[in-house]
Specification:
With about 80 residues, this protein is mainly alpha-helical. It has three helices and no strands. The longest helix is centred in the last third of the chain and has 31 residues. The chain is extended and about 50 Å long. The two termini are about 25 Å apart.
């Protein structure tokens, strides 16, 4: 049986969830994809160091995709 305190979400957890939901739900011009497209179309916006940093971050996302796919699969099966 879970303790009552185990069910309470901290402010930090709530902030992280809201930030993640905001990031995921963005469909407008401020989404990550649209920002990347803008940067690519105007490649002068970023310096080489920034492009390298961006690529590193994208590689980290690519590494997470199989885990995200597994979570999606398991949640669909659990329905």
């Amino acid at each position: 049986m879970a303790k009552k305190n185990d069910e309470i979400i901290t402010q930090e957890e709530l902030d992280n969830l809201l930030m993640l939901n905001d990031f995921i739900d963005k469909k407008d011009e401020q989404s990550l994809v649209s920002e990347l497209k803008k940067a690519i179309l105007d490649s002068g916006k970023l310096e080489l160091v920034q492009w390298l940093s961006l690529r590193e971050q994208l590689q980290e996302i690519e590494e997470l995709i199989p885990h995200i796919d597994l979570i999606i699969k398991l949640k669909k099966e659990d329905r």
